[in-house]
Structures are given as C-alpha cells and as structure tokens.
Automatic annotation (TrEMBL):
Its cofactor is heme b. One of its GO terms (cellular component) is cytosol. One of its GO terms (molecular function) is peroxidase activity. It comes from Penicillium chermesinum. Residues 277-297 are annotated as: Disordered. Residues 221-386 form the Dyp-type peroxidase C-terminal domain. Pfam families: DyP_N, Dyp_perox_C. This is Dyp-type peroxidase. Keywords: Heme, Iron, Metal-binding, Oxidoreductase, Peroxidase, Signal. Residues 6-170 form the DyP dimeric alpha+beta barrel domain. Belongs to the DyP-type peroxidase family. NCBIfam families: Dyp_perox_fam.
Amino acid sequence: MPDLSNIQGDVWPRLPKKAEGFYFFNITNPAEFKKHLKRLAPQITTGEEAKETRSELYSRKKAGKTGLVQLSSINISFSYSGLEKLGKTDLGDEIFRNGQYKDMVTDGLDKPEDWDKFYQGYNGKIDGVILVTGNTLKVVESTFLKSVQPCFSSGGPTTSMRVVHTEEGTVQQHDKEHFGWVDGISEPLVKGLESSNNPKDLPPVRDGTFFVGGEGDFFKSPAWAKDGSFMVFRRLRQLVPEFTSWCGKNCEDPTNMDVIRLFSSRVVGRWPDGAPLEHHPTHAYRDGHPEDPENKRNDFDFGPDNHLQTRCPFAAHIRKVRPRADFANDSQAMIRRGIPYGDWTEVEEKRGGHTLKHRGLLFVSYQANLRNGFRFVMKEWANKDGFPDGKFEACGGKPPGIDPIIGQVDKYPGRCNIPSAKNLQPAPPVSDREVEVERFVIPEGGEYFFTPSINALMTDLTK
C-alpha cells in the first residue's frame, strides 16, 4: 500500500482544484537548485494532505454550504533532462529518456507542425514542471509568486531556474470537458487505497500499475524512485464545432437532436452526463448531474456480451482506451488528472461549424511505466483499427476502427464502426456501418515527467 504521506497529492487522490497552473522550468544552476528544492519540498502537497482537504470539501458540500473555499496546492515533476542535471540518470526508461517529441512525433502519431515551439526546445529544454492548483486562477498565480518563486531566489529574481512556459486551465460547469461530456469519472480504483460499495464495480488495480515499486510493478527501478510515478502532460486542442457538425453529418436524421445525441454518445461510450451506455443504451439516465451515483458506476465491463456492440460500440472512445473485458487485465490503466483550458463554445460558433477560439484539454496521466501505460494505449489501442481483438464478425467482417475522438487519421486508416442511431433502438447484433473519422483533437505538444516521492525530494534529489 502506498504511503500517502510520501506520495504527491495529484497522483492520488488528486489535488483539489477549480483552477490549475503548469509552470515549466529550466534548471540554470543545478547546485543552487538542489538547495532551493529543499526549501520547496515542505510545501509540496502530499496524498495525505490532499485526501484530508478533499474530505473537508465533501463534508462542506454535504452540509449544504456554498461558495468557493480558499485553497491552493503545489506539486513538482521532472523530465529526464531535469533529473540528469540533478545527477539521477538511472531510471532506465528509454521512452522517458528520449522524451515525448521523439516518441509521439518522430516515432509516433503527432504532426511536427502542430507542436508549439515551446515543447520543441525553442526556449531551452523543459527540465520540470511545477503544478499549482487553487479555487481561482488568481489564487494559483498568487501562490506561485508568493510561495514557490521565493524558494528559488535570494531576495530577488530566481537564481537557479527560470520558467520557460506556462499553461492555465479551469474546471468547467458540471465538470465537463469541451465536447460536453462529464470528465474525470470512472477512474481506476487503486488497490489498498480505494474500495467500492458496489459489488459489480471493477476490482481495484494493483498499486504498482501507478506507483513505482508497488505491487505488480515488475520493472527494475532505483530505490529512490519508489512511490514515484511517471507523468504525461499533453496540450490537446479540441475542435468542438467540427465535432458537432461531424456528428450531425453522420446521422440519418440530422434534424433530430435525440438521434444526434445517441450517435455522439455512442462515439464516446457514455452519455454527456456520464451514464454508461452499457446500462442505458438508448436513453440517458439523468442529465447534468455528475454527482449522481448512477453516473459514476464503474462496472460497465462490456460483458458478458462483450462480443457484441448492441450497447457500447467497440470503437467508442472509452472502450478503446480502457477496454475492460475486451482485454485480459488492467495493467495499462492510467490515472487521469487533466483540466480544460479556453472558453466554452457558444452556440453561434457551433452553428458556424468552425473553431474560432483556442480551447481544449491539458491532459495529465500517471502510471508506473510509460511503455505499459500512455504509450501502449495510444499506439496499440486507440490508433489501431483492429483493436479490440476478435470483433470482426460483429462488424460485418470489418475491423472496429480507430478511436473517433483521439484517433490521428493520417498514419492509420481513418474509419470507425459506429452503429446507426436512427430509430433510437439498441444497435443490431451485426453492424458494418463505417464512418470516416476526422481529427477533432490536435496534440500541440507535451513532455514526459517523473513525479518523485516526498522522501526523494527531501533527500536523494537534494544531495
């Protein structure tokens, strides 16, 4: 069982936040930085502290108290180049060492022209990122200026690091991401830290899937890395009006909003309110209520009829990235901690069918191994048209297709099998209806980081 006082709080249970800032930095003086990091370490929010704060917030909400609570939290993570400057080169992960650009652009799916120059080293290598969360962006910025920045200075400008880039995000109404679906639900339960009152829920995943050195982590890592986790950061631009238009274009009755809603929910695998199609295949359970227990059910394992797609299509986003019964185990599970950025899409912009404002998701995931986690999900599941395996018969002899939400169509066949929603009925047992996939999520850059334990921050990384 992970020691909550030794892990950083965003990995588990999640930092409480309505707003979040990502401060990407370059280490300019490693010797001085180690001294300054030791100053910052006591301010890092632990899993134990985050759990207590979240419990207090839930109690306050249950009691009917309203209004935002003034709060802020701090976490820190390092890229390979950052750890190298601190004398730590023994993590032994080639994917981590080479960085995200090589993995996802040079050897992967992303287009180099889509990547922001800051993530390509334009302003120096990104050695690390400081996460600051709060109830407002003003609180986030104030916390960084008053609590973080002074740790890296001697009364004036920072002397051991410089911030080379920043990103900011805010939680949208009802916890929805920009396409309009409740986000952050159906997270994997962590064995030893979480349990469920619902006997039908998926069993907790071994903690070594998320924490280095935990149960089920069979990769050899140095002792100092224990209780740490690899963090993936990605800025994903979302083309909301284009997605809305595409859904209408692929419906037999584009004037019927119920048909469009069912089709788009089949694309995602959930209704906008979060209710899974596995339990509500034709009509949503309840709209606009992410806190409703029904919408948080975690037992939709696409079984026992997982050889059919009469409810949730094989190509649906949630089925492609976490296939449950379609795959033998949960060793590829990730903990997701993303947050939206940009303004909500107005009706007039949707009607025009073209994106006018920059918006999307600051995607964050944690896993004990990048090859097993994020990289595997993106390259072997989401963007492989033959996955889930063994579904050709139910697709009329064709493959299920790529993920229609995050699929990158230029390097793989851009099709997916989404059954008709015309009659608002469950899909037929066999459906060979293919639709052409367009790019609605544009990766614009990111990096791989390692989020060390509190003990590592206080000792091994500051020697």
